Amino acid sequence: xxxxxxxxxxxxxxxxxxxPVALYGLNLAMCGFAFWILRIEIARQHRHDPEMSEYxxxxxVKNLFSGFLYLSAAALAHVSVYISYFIYVLIPAIYFLxxxxxxxxxx
Length: 107
Description:
This protein is mostly helical. 82% of the residues lie in helices and 0% in strands. The model has no long low-confidence stretch (mean pLDDT 89).
């Protein structure tokens, strides 16, 4: 995660070059997979609560999916950097959408 400012600056200085855009996606993929591993440990600590365990498993799927999307964006940067940019914007948008269970509980 400490490399994020470096690759963000590198990509900002070379916005149309595929290598910096791919490096940015690779860095975010590594951060996503590290967060997925952290979530595994959190889920393990809540394994006795079935409701929390189910919630953590749903979030783990989303984290793993986003990690693979970041990896695909890194690979697609050599095809088109704009596809990668779209994926980089799409993933935070997915996280801003409320979970179905949380939205149903608040009503």
